[in-house]
Amino acid sequence: MNQSRRTALKSTGAFASLIALGVVTQSQAQAAVDHASFQVKTLEDALKAIGGTAATSDQVSVVSPDIAENGAVVPVGATSKLANTTEMYLIVEKNPTPLSAAFMIPAGTAADVQTRLKMGQSTNVVAVVKADGKLFSASKETKVTLGGCGG
Length: 151
Fold this sequence. Notes:
With 151 residues, the protein is an alpha+beta fold.
């Protein structure tokens, strides 16, 4: 048994016990388990953590500036026109920890999310959407300038 599977089984068992005893809620346990996904170091590992390779779709779009003057606060978002969108993820490819944001989309809610992310350098921003149990993605390059005068 590999180490990551062993760790997952231990964590799941521990959280199941805590939920059964009423020490933590199911939402708190889920948030703690999902935290490990944000520790991966590569784009490929981030995709594996959220469920595998995503197919490119024109129904998913990334909202990000072409040029960001301040990499500390880059406005980034994603929209999905796919029916039954349940999850949305934002991945910044060249960040030390690429998986930057995760959103759970309740049924009947517009699949449109916005946030601000930190980017250390020019990179691709990838939006991954889970709809009907399948993964779809889109990406967009954002250039981060130094002092607003680079490229």
